[in-house]
């Protein structure tokens, strides 16, 4: 009997249902062609979940991730300047998903500002200003606490260097602002330096974050792995996505010791939601990362090969990357490419 994987699925809101619908179809088809099955355990999160369960993250969703240990997640809208806490940040903290892994890689055939980009952002995922510790000191004065710990900085550095060693990557740049935040970013750097010493075969360098933005735009090829705290990594991810065609393309993985949640870098894109315009590539490539994570590389490769074929042909692309096709037509093109002999 075919092996069946139980995956928690959070379709999300905005463009979430459209892109996750397309991705589930493609993953199912790739699974069927490579002899594996999927059981999707679907849950709403955020405002949508609150309407029916009075909880932003229903307990059943927590239980499902705990049981399945793997989730595929669409974007969830977070209210700005008030309202409930970010679902993403809450899930990352709850399941101790300390590493945010974001590969930024050019797709074949797609004309972008910079060809042949291949860099990785390794972002600390639980600390920094994202700890969400804010309070009003007195009316008109608000304080947000930036939390950086030796434990958090060391384990994310270890993750980046372990990945570099395992995948033969040449260089890790720690990105910081320790000239100003001497204690917090200073600690982050000290931890990165200490870990770097254990990996003499991987080159190590440090760049200040504002300079990094300029350096990236001038010459992104000088970077291989960017090791960052939480906030800098978030900002640099969107910047780097522009090298390869934008937010519609870049996947991500939130990894911990027990569980993993795979999601695109992009958000819920309310400006294009419900219009059949969203590019499902970023979530599809997140699903490819997920399939590698659960040791189903044959299924992952089948999808990646078909996806690259569609980009190489360039006939059925979404608007964000210069095409004229919709989400559904793009997904159908990937499904069709998968049916071709590979
Ligand atoms: P966004 O990523 O949703 O959109 C930024 C721009 O990129 C928009 O112009 C959008 O149309 C475009 N875009 C994004 N994804 C695309 C895709 N797949 N195909 C084509 N174009 C795409 O960022 P935002 O507008 O700053 O945020 C909107 C909401 O999403 C906010 O509530 C934010 O909190 C939330 N958000 C959620 C996540 C997550 O769930 N992981 C991540 C980031 C932002």
From TrEMBL:
One of its GO terms (molecular function) is magnesium ion binding. GO terms for biological process: isocitrate metabolic process; tricarboxylic acid cycle. The keyword Oxidoreductase applies. SMART domains: Iso_dh. Keywords: Oxidoreductase. Residues 6-334 form the Isopropylmalate dehydrogenase-like domain. This is Isocitrate/isopropylmalate family dehydrogenase. It comes from Edaphobacter dinghuensis.
């Amino acid at each position: 009997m075919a092996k069946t994987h139980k995956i928690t699925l959070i379709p999300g809101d905005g463009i979430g249902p459209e892109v996750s619908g397309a991705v589930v179809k493609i993953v199912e088809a790739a699974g069927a062609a490579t002899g594996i099955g999927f059981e999707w355990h679907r849950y709403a999160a955020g405002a949508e979940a609150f309407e029916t369960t009075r909880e932003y993250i229903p307990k059943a969703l927590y239980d499902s991730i705990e049981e399945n240990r793997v989730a595929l997640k669409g974007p969830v809208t977070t209210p700005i300047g008030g309202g409930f806490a970010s679902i993403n940040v809450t899930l990352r903290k709850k399941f101790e998903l300390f590493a945010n892994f974001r590969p930024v890689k050019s797709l074949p055939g797609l004309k972008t500002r910079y060809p042949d980009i291949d860099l990785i952002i390794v972002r600390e995922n639980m600390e920094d200003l994202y700890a969400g510790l804010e309070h009003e000191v007195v009316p008109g004065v608000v304080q947000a606490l930036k939390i950086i710990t030796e434990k958090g900085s060391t384990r994310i550095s270890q993750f980046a260097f372990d990945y570099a060693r395992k995948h033969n990557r040449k260089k890790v740049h720690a990105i910081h602002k320790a000239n100003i935040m001497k204690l917090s970013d200073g600690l982050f750097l000290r931890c990165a330096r200490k870990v770097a010493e254990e990996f003499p075969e991987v080159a190590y360098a440090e760049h200040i974050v504002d300079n990094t933005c300029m350096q990236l735009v001038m010459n992104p090829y000088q970077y291989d792995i960017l090791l960052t705290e939480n906030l800098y990594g978030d900002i640099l991810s969107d910047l780097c996505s522009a090298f390869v065609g934008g937010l519609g393309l870049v996947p991500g993985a939130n990894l911990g010791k027990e569980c993993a949640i795979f999601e695109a870098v992009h958000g819920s894109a309310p400006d294009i939601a419900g219009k059949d315009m969203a590019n499902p590539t970023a979530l599809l490539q997140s699903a490819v990362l997920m399939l590698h994570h659960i040791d189903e590389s044959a299924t992952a490769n089948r999808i990646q090969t078909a996806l690259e074929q569609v980009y190489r042909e360039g006939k059925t692309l979404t608007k964000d990357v210069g095409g004229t096709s919709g989400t559904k037509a793009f997904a159908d093109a990937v499904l069709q490419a998968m049916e071709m002999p590979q």
